[in-house]
Every structure is written in C-alpha cells, then in structure tokens.
Amino acid sequence: MPTPGFAETSAFVAVVEQKSFTKAAKQLGLSPPRVSELVRQLEERLGVRLVERTTRSVAATAAGERLIERLRPALEEYAAAFEAANEFRSKPAGLLRLTVAPPAADFVLAPVIPRFLKLYPEISLDISVDGALTDIVAGRFDAGIRPGERVARDMIAVRVSDELASVVVAAPDYLKRRGEPKSPQELGAHDCIRVRLPSGAFFPWRLRINRRVVEVHVEGPLISNGTSAIPITAAIEGAGLIQLPLPYVAGELAAGRLVTVLDQWAPPPSEGFFLYYPSRRQTRAALKVLVDFLRDARRHASDKRSAFAAIEPSVRPLAL
Fold it and tell me: Is the pTM of this model over 0.90?
C-alpha cells in the first residue's frame, strides 16, 4: 500500500481536532470540498472508515481515534522541527561562514569581532581569509567582504569601510642613504619592495601623473607573497620603498619608523570594503545583525576620525 500523503493526513487530523470540515478547511486554507476529498482518499487508501459524518457533527471512528493517537506525537515533532527552523531564521543564532579579503580581515573585522561575539553569544563565525575572489554561493558562504570593485553587480552590497588610501613609504634611513624620489619617474632608480597577490599579479603601484592615474612599473630586491610582516619589516629596516594600503603602515608612520613619499602623486582612494550576499529573501537574522553591526562600527569609526582630524589637522586620519 502506498504511504498516505501529508496533505491527506493533515486534512484528517484537522477535521478530527476541529470537529468540522468547514473549520478544518479554514485552518488549512482549503475549500471544504477539497478537505472532504482528502479525507475520503485517506480512508480509501487505508480501507477503513476514519470519520463519522452527520448533518450535525463530525467525529473520529474507533479506527480514526487509534490512528490519530499514533499520529499526534509524530505531527507534534514535525511541527516542532519547522518551529525550530523558523526560530533559527528569526533569532540571531547559528553559524555564519564568511570569506574575507586579508585587508578587510585585518582592519574591518579584527578590531570589532570580539565585541560582536559578546553581543551575540549564540552566533558563531567561521571566517576564511582569502585574497582570491571566492564564489560565495558555490562555497556555501553566507557572505563575503571584498573591495567594492570586486563585488558582482547581482549581489546585495553594504559598505563596511570608508574609502581606502594607498601610500608609498620608506624608512628615514633608506631616504638618507638613497635620497627621496621627487617624482614617479625617479622610482626606477630606487629599490622597491613588491607584494604578490593570490592571483599571481603584483599589488599595483598606482600614482597620479598628469591628472591620470597610471600603473608604475618598479623593481627591487624583495618580492613577498602577501602583506605579512616580512615586507613591512624589510621597509622599516631600510630595504626599500613599498606601496600599501594606509592602514597597514599607519602605526609605523605614527611612530616615525616609516615616512610617506610622493604624496602629491597619490591616486584617489579606492572604494573601500563591502559586505555582500546573494539575496534579500529569507536573510538569516544572524546575518542581518552582523550587517547592522558592521555598518554601525564603520559609522562610529568615521565619527572618531573626523573628531581626531578636527583636533590634529596635521595628522592624516586612517582610511579604514
């Protein structure tokens, strides 16, 4: 015998509990004739009468009573399972998987994630730091954080950082020995530390020349895969010039271990970082609160930088 369908079973239970085909139909969002048809199909499938019908009342037969006694625990568990899923959707809880570009991990997430986890102890984060452009749908990630220019147009994108400046820096000792380049054209006479991206390409040295932003070819004794401590330490120790996003060297600039050069040729800031995800439909509560949290954190950081710049106009604020 084929297993009865859920629609038939639900109709039978609703009729018995409501003691009415009309009330059961209203509860299920069906017409009374359709509910009657489903109950009849169930009776025919089982070969027993489950419901006694009169003009005044509806009641379960002995077979119907026995069946509903066995069904009720299973139906309650079935409903509880969906209720749990609904709670998971409406309550900030569960695991969020994020794929994040290294600079965003360092300067957008790292300063604020401990506070987020304290605010939402029922949320867990699985953060994959990867410079490559990851397909968040294929990789089963809830969201990603990448520079704005690398976010696909069909994604929902929320800005989580301000625009991001890049600077060319060197150690005072290096500039004392080799002299300070006065124009981009003079970079050819200098040692430049290059950073290789996950794609295999070098982090581009972009400068503004004759009102145009151009990519400048540089050479030097050191190539590093990623913005680890190696290239920055090498620059501090006088190995050469390096161009990086400002947050990577802000502390060294403040301490005087590095200084900027070619400031007047600096290109416009990049777009900064955006959190992105595929759709607004059925967005999990955990992701919603993360989006709101990072948006507020960015706004708070921007307000602090504005206040700092007003007090110390000679100090360049960090473009996080």
Answer: no
